[in-house]
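Service request form, structural biology core

Requester: graduate student, group of Dr. S.
Request type: structure prediction, single chain
Budget code: on file
Notes: please return the result as structure tokens.

Sequence provided:
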Amino acid sequence: MALREATEITLLPVAATTPIEDTSTREGEIWASSEEDVASANGCQAVYWSRWVENQNMVQLIISAELIHEPPDWDSIEHHTRYTQTPNFGPYLERLSSVLNGPMVMYHVHFTPHPPTNALAAPVTELCTVYFPAAITPTEKDRWYHGFTHFLSQLIQNAEGMVAEAHGWAVEEVAYGGQQCVAFVGAIGWESLEKNKTYGESQGCKDTIGALADGSLGMEMHHVVFADP
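Core staff response, request fulfilled:
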């Protein structure tokens, strides 16, 4: 199988009152040490994390890695999976779980471009995940992607304050609405939330964003402000 670079997407439920940002606290020390463990893992390029702007009880963790094998074989995801097999992973997961108030969700995305640094390093990043039936065919994916490229073209040409974007299909199926789904993830970097909102209210956006819902089961969007990796 061919090797491809990949990005790990992790959603972590952390209560807004849990002070992971304060390294002088037990929770902050655990979070900082967990981040250091991941950053030092073989193949890790960068680690980004932020609470969601819209939901302070949810933390977004994004890890950019060097190479993984092509799907669909989960066990072939080399650098990410290799870390889970090291002696350090068990204690890491135990420490991290102690600051969570629910199960985490993790999957991988082949972003174009890779790494998605410019979109993630923007002042604010909009993350959009579109979910499709697991039985979606390659032809249906291609048809949807054609509509997405039209939306993207309009975004790039007309959105004032758009810094950069990256997008790609998830390697694994992702749970949504009580079922396992195929997922597509877009990351759009903006100069500010206000610039994002202004474009979202524009006619150009209204005329093209409907293509994202075509044939999908649903879509989830939120914003994050990542610290420098």
